[in-house]
């Protein structure tokens, strides 16, 4: 979380001003959006990593998924040009919720109340991913104990 917080500060302050992007947003509002985004990305990554036997496989899968997530976020390709089923499927990824809200906060200067639904969706995603990850670890731990008893 600390490494990601450092990257967020780097992107929000240094890179944003270096490229002279429009900045009409309140920094506190932006941080209020990025906190649940960071939580949902962390829990999404942990949850995805539990599906693989080897850590390296999860990293390769995430590298494969990254450009797809970028296109689905609507920053490099308009959402209106995507099929409806693909837009619906993209709602699984935290970036598709956070990127449009972030752009509205920083470039349009809206407040946190205008992106309240996106913030709530990100908290819901973070909670869902955390629940699924904990449930998977519990099931894995429980089935491991049963196997040890059967082998004894």
From TrEMBL:
Q: Which residues form the ABC-2 type transporter transmembrane domain?
A: 3-122
Taxonomic lineage is: Bacteria, Pseudomonadati, Bacteroidota, Bacteroidia, Marinilabiliales
Question: GO CC annotations?
Answer: plasma membrane
User: GO molecular function terms here?
Assistant: ABC-type transporter activity
Q: What is this protein called?
A: ABC transporter permease
Check the record and name the Pfam families matching this protein: ABC2_membrane_3
Keyword flag Repeat: no
Q: Which UniProt keywords apply?
A: Cell membrane, Membrane, Transmembrane, Transmembrane helix
| Membrane-protein topology | Multi-pass membrane protein
Q: Could you tell me where this protein is found in the cell?
A: Cell membrane
| Highest taxon in the source lineage | Bacteria
InterPro entries, per the entry: ABC-2_transporter_component, ABC2_TM
Query: Transmembrane region positions?
Result: 30-52, 59-79, 122-139
């Amino acid at each position: 979380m600390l490494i990601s917080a450092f990257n967020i500060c780097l992107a929000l302050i240094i890179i944003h001003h270096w490229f002279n992007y429009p900045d009409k947003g309140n920094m506190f509002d932006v941080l209020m959006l990025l906190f649940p985004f960071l939580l949902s990305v962390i829990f999404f990554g942990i949850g995805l990593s539990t599906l693989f036997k080897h850590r390296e496989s999860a990293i390769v899968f995430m590298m494969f998924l990254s450009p797809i997530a970028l296109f689905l976020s609507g920053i490099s390709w308009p959402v209106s040009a995507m099929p409806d089923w693909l837009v619906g499927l993209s709602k699984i990824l935290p970036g598709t919720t956070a990127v449009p809200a972030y752009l509205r906060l920083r470039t349009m200067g809206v407040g946190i109340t205008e992106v309240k639904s996106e913030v709530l969706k990100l908290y819901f995603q973070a909670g869902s991913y955390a629940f699924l990850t904990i449930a998977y670890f519990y099931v894995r731990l429980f089935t491991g104990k049963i196997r040890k008893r059967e082998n004894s």
